[in-house]
Write a structure and sequence with these properties.
The protein is α/β, with parallel strands linked by helices. The chain contains ten helices and ten strands. Helix content is 45%, strand content 15%.
């Protein structure tokens, strides 16, 4: 079985697991369970123990309809957590932010990945990544979290998302970001209808091949699973894991999930069956 390196982590052909750490009081999934510094750190350590390859720390809820968080408040939420985790963990820490100043502070605190839900549309974000020589995750989002789910429309969602990701990838390379440090994310649930999310997931292999970069999938507990299963977010882990397995078989490189233990167990089985 061949291995490659991504985010400085050795990976088999199966995806790396990015554990989600929402240090927000209004997360759609965990409702602020980890908004205190001590509970956030404890949860991150637990995810690392369960098999997370990376931890993604976010201080602003980007659920549909969410109001923006003041920049100073976002910094106050994420920086102490990133500082602590970078000294406690040997795995890479990612910061999930749209703001250059937050990204800058996070990199200084020990983050080595900038995960931007706005896909580096703000040129200052690329400057921060270049300055700190970080990895970047470029996500597709239509609009902003506040209004992204108000009648989103695509002629061809797979083509449109692929085109955006390719364009942003080329822009980042032109700005000096090394191609091997760029990961792309189709942005499941970010300005997408149910049928758009399904089409993107069915075509993950095509998107990865056309963009030519490693692919991250953030599908965990999202609303399209709620529409299929008719259950609230906390009861969507089985559905999330089903998509994780499907994504692994399509060559996805990183899966961003809440339930690391379930995801790790599922991928262990897939690894044996595909060896």
């Amino acid at each position: 079985m061949s291995h490659t390196h991504l985010f400085g982590v050795e990976k088999a052909p199966l995806p790396l697991i990015m554990g989600i750490l929402n240090v927000t009081p209004d997360s759609f999934s965990d409702g602020g369970r980890f908004s205190s510094q001590s509970s956030a750190i404890e949860h991150a350590l637990s995810m690392a123990e369960e098999g997370a390859d990376l931890i993604d720390v976010g201080g602003e809820s980007t659920r549909p309809g969410a109001d923006p968080v003041p920049e100073a408040e976002e910094i106050e939420r994420v920086i102490p957590v990133i500082e602590s985790l970078s000294s406690l963990l040997s795995i890479p820490i990612s910061v999930d932010t749209r703001r250059p100043r937050v990204a800058e502070a996070a990199c200084q605190a020990g983050a080595s990945i900038i995960n931007d839900v706005e896909g580096f549309r703000n040129p200052e974000m690329a400057a921060v990544a270049l300055k700190h020589n970080t990895w970047v995750v470029v996500m597709h989002m239509k609009g902003t979290p506040k209004e992204m789910q108000k009648n989103p429309h695509y002629r061809d969602v797979v083509r449109d998302v692929t085109s955006f990701l390719s364009s942003q990838r080329n822009m980042l390379v032109e700005r000096g970001i090394p191609p091997h440090k760029i990961v792309v994310d189709p942005g499941i649930g970010f300005g997408k209808r149910f049928q758009d999310n399904i089409a993107l997931i069915k075509n993950l292999y095509t998107i990865k091949r056309k963009v030519g970069q490693p692919l991250l999938l953030g599908h965990s507990r999202k609303s399209f699973l709620g529409e299929i299963l008719e259950v609230p977010p906390k009861e969507r882990d089985v559905g999330t894991t089903a998509v994780t397995i499907f994504a692994a078989l399509q060559g996805v490189d990183i899966v961003r999930v809440h339930n690391v233990k379930m995801c790790r167990q599922a991928l262990q089985v897939v690894e044996i069956l595909t060896a």
